[in-house]
Structure formats: structure tokens, C-alpha cells
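Entry 14. Structure prediction run on the chain below.
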Amino acid sequence: MKIVKKHPFNSQVTALELGYGIIGRPLMNVYCYLIGDTLIDCGQAKMAGEMKSFALAHRIEQLLLTHHHEDHSGNAAMIAKTCGAAVMGHPETAHKMGHIRPILPYQHLIWGQSRAVAVSPLPAVVASDGFRFLPIHTPGHSKDHTVYLEVQNGWLFSGDLYLGDRIKFFRSDEKIDQQIQSLQIVLQHDFESLFCAHNPVLKNGRDRLRRKLAYLEDITGAVGSLLTRGLPEKEIIRRLDHRQDRFVKFFTMGNASFANMVRSAIRAI
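Output returned:
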């Protein structure tokens, strides 16, 4: 099943929502944002035809990547070729997109493999079509994760920094301490709309990021408290796990799970 929806969130920001499901509804849809001639993220390769149609219907001069994960970068090479757009991102994003490595079976099934593409370095401010995007490096979800703050309008294009107030799982390589620090840094800025790549929040975006921060701090505190009592990792996971991640844990063969969040907190303490 495929989902393709166009959302004119306001007179200047349009989102293309893309979802691909092997059987039935997609596990998670992806939002790509068009602001003037700038596209932020470009969806999964499994939806290349739909993204190409969208790209051809609009003037896209530059593509800003929040990070290299396949649901965000899957059509970068196609956008560059089809539109002649400059692809920009963090230096680590450039490295990842220039050296494509094998991905896991579930990633192939729901997103597809990204293709190699040249990624140019980001200036201090990306200015185009009357908009000004401030790139802010926000590691934790991935080493290269970067959000883009449109300072004049108070829009934060947050990639996977938010996702939800109380997330249910971490990928195996996520770092909870870095995410906490990244959230603290971003919350020093002023913005209203949180244009998340999977869960947009148009009002009170800063409050929603504060809730995410408080949740991760609570998890870290709870893990630390149990560690000081001498409990082993397995017992800490058992006590804190609400068993809300079971399907995702099974489908990803453990690459995404609540246990990974606990393990990250243990490593950070």
C-alpha cells in the first residue's frame, strides 16, 4: 500500500507525505518539506516515482538533508539529476552519501536503498528565495543529524529529533546523552512550528520538544537509580520496559527496541 498526500501547511510551507507498506498500511510515513525553492529531505527510494512527480511540478534549487537515513535521503540522487538541485548536508552526511553501505533487510523492505550522491557542505546560514535556514548539528539519533531553523518565521525542520513526546524505542546506534544535549541546544532558540519528518506539530513546538527532553531525562534518571542499587542490565530493562515495542523489535530483529534506549543510558552514565 502506498500513501501520497500533499499538505499546504501554510502559504509558504508545503509537505509531501509518503508512505510505503509491504502489506497493508505503512509502519511510518515520511514528510518532506518544500519552502520556496528549497526541499528539506526527500523520502524513501520505494516512493521514487511519487517524489519525482512532485519534484517536476515544482522549482527545486536545493535539497537540505537532515541526515543520511534511507527514509530521508532515498531520493537525493534522483532530485539532483532531475532538478539539477544542489544537495547539502553535514560533512558526515556527505561521507555517508558518498560511501553507501549495505542496509538491513527490514530497511530494504520499507524504505529501499539510497543511491550515492555528492553532498555539498552547509554554510553558516542557507539563504534562498527570501528564506534563511540556520543549520544546527543535533547528533544522537545519528552522528550527522542536523535540523534547520527558519529564523524569520519560527519554523524548525527537525528531521528525527522529535518523533514524539514519549518514544517507544531506539535504534541500536542512538545515543541518549547526545540527544538530550541536542534538545537542550535547540530549545535555546525561538520557534513555534515543529516540522518533524514523521509527526509535524504546527503549534507549541517548543513545548513538545521540552516534553521529549523531560522523558529522556526521566529514562536516564530511572536507569541511573537502578544501577546504583546494583541491578544488572537485563533486570533494569525488565523493570522499565512497558512492552510497547514488540512488533518493531521483532520486525527489525532487535535493531530498534526499548532495550536499546536503556543500554544507551547505561553507557552514558
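The longest helix spans residues 205-228.
Filed with the rest of this week's runs.
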